[in-house]
Amino acid sequence: xxxxxxxxxxxxxxxxxxxxxxxxxxxxxxxxxxxxxxxxxxxxxxxxxxxxxxxxxxxxxxxxxxxxxxxxxxxxxxxxxxxxxxxxxxxxxxxxxxxxxxxxxxxxxxxxxxxxxxxxxxxxxxxxxxxxxxxxxxxxxxxxxxxxxxxxxxxxxxxxxxxxxxxxxxxxxxxxxxxxxxxxxxxxxxxxxxxxxxxxxxxxxxxxxxxxxxxxxxxxxxxxxxxxxxxxxxxxxxxxxxxxxxxxxxxxxxxxxxxxxxxxxxxxxxxxxxxxxxxxxxxxxxxxxxxxxxxxxxxxxxxxxxxxxxxxxxxxxxxxxxxxxxxxxxxxxxxxxxxxxxxxxxxxxxxxxxxxxxxxxxxxxxxxxxxxxxxxxxxxxxxxxxxxxxxxxxxxxxxxxxxxxxxxxxxxxxxxxxxxxxxxxxxxxxxxxxxxxxxxxxxxxxxxxxxxxxxxxxxxxxxxxxxxxxxxxxxxxxxxxxxxxxxxxxxxxxxxxxxxxxx
Amino acid sequence: xxxxxxxxxxxxxxxxxxxxxxxxxxxxxxxxxxxxxxxxxxxxxxxxxxxxxxxxxxxxxxxxxxxxxxxxxxxxxxxxxxxxxxxxxxxxxxxxxxxxxxxxxxxxxxxxxxxxxxxxxxxxxxxxxxxxxxxxxxxxxxxxxxxxxxxxxxxxxxxxxxxxxxxxxxxxxxxxxxxxxxxxxxxxxxxxxxxxxxxxxxxxxxxxxxxxxxxxxxxxxxxxxxxxxxxxxxxxxxxxxxxxxxxxxxxxxxxxxxxxxxxxxxxxxxxxxxxxxxxxxxxxxxxxxxxxxxxxxxxxxxxxxxxxxxxxxxxxxxxxxxxxx
Lengths: 503, 325
What we know:
The complex is a heterodimer. By secondary structure, chain A is α+β, with helices and mostly antiparallel strands.
């Protein structure tokens, strides 16, 4: 037993040294120059060196700036964050002045409910026209009374005082897939929820990179309008990682200026299949004890969730087929974009410790550490780590994962050591399918399997609006089974909770 | 036969024999410290923890500062019926005013849901949940609107009694708080924005605590009941068994790993501070068909420059435990 004890110590010191090395590298990297450079700035200017404002409205003057001068809103983050965007039946409210709006769902065609005359009947435009922008000609078009109002189209509407557009949407289950043709240069487009399901009655924001994913590198930047301040928001630039980050959110009911460099078609599906994945390790060589239940935990989660009619399983890997490379971001030499980050919900069962999860090839162990993980920059929304102390509260160890959130909604896991139990994944997935929140499902599953006291579980979830009086991702349900909120992957704020498992 | 070949073969055989003898003694030497632990002891104490480096949870030294409890020479073992029928669940739902349809899903879940309220049963664990979304609250609001532990206990008592949910023998045991925070890493801000109180109940049989039965009621900021979790199977006397004494159980503890929920990489000195004879009806990984007596050792362990709580259960009826685990 003593021999194991010494091996254990050697192993632990090796791990600490490797952690220190990783942290040193991370510190060295962050001490370098900001990445925002000439390339990114040049996108914001015309070839003549003037800020590339979106087209001015007819009879409206564009702000005038000097050569190589940027508006203040491009120098510091300025954006409107609608607090709640979850109920589709919510009105579209127009503020005094110009508004750039869009319609998040198709309107019912009966009684002219989808025509401008009805939709804007209660809006006092002060005698101004309502406009759309024809990107093929670069000209503004006036909306007529009979114009059919559609999703994915941006509308410029002037309102004298606050007013409300009339919206009678198709009910859930009857929405159509919208599409729009985009042309090089400026396009005025409407936001469309890229992840929503036709059967949901909810609207969700989405990261711009997710919203415009199908356009690849053919889009350059994307600018919203803040109706309250009557100013453009800070632009979102394809691939930027500063205040222009494309990990920032775009919001339902807003219209956006989109600058394209090629002809493309932007289309969305109103129905989606969501995918899950699971990896487990039971056979650990050396000092770590083998875990008899890892296989059952992961399989229970994977097969029960993938049996849901909205969900399918992408892969389940066990023991040596599971690999830290599948959880590690490509920035750190991993391939998570081909594995867990290419699915919507990933589950891990195995050994863990604060800031890491452990894998094994049957000969030696390897680790995925917090500083190698960037989750959500491809697809993954939720992660469950059925591993010890991954969300440990002492010394704020749970916060190690904060920088791994790049679009991820939440992580659930053990705050204390955990227990391997064959029913854990099954109970968890069942609760998710029954419409419980992810956090409630995790609490119930862990309460159910814990036989003795002293155990705690936790969740680390994104707080989208920074308002301490509202919670967002901590109340997420899985797709197809309730509400959820899409988080930004930039400048992320969090809610966390811990729960003492019931003894 | 060539004499040289015979010599070489002879030398090889001698070397092989020496290797076998050395190997035999080496193997037994490694195992020499281990006591002959009855299978029943190992089966229950073989706690499966998923902590990396927590596998070696055997302290270098263990001492006992607790008084050995006196107990009977024989004790009743009970058979367990953890089945909750659909009818029983409907009755619980009715008591709670939940009138939704019953839905069943594999592998054995039963759900009844109406609006934001639901009741669920799986393998004898029942949970009531009020899923109404709660906002975040300021710390001041929480402090002024969260009931005290005593008030929470009264609310939980009233909830159980008024809905006819209190199982026989349920006695208030403890309260714990679940706390949540809002965090802004960029501004280094951490503000409490949620808190709830879990009121726990337990029960005893023949004076011994049933360690694995659980009942908890969660009370939120406004004194509303958010959740109830209950695992409270039915028991029938099965047979009396002779039990080992606490000294003998302590002997087995010395050779068993201990459970340290807060985790400890290198447990060094463990001190037992309490020993009690309790009942359990499942191990870490499986439900048992019987309610069996175990010695429940609790204490503190030092290591890694800190101190943490630990515990371990040693079966009081090792042979029977071996049969059923």
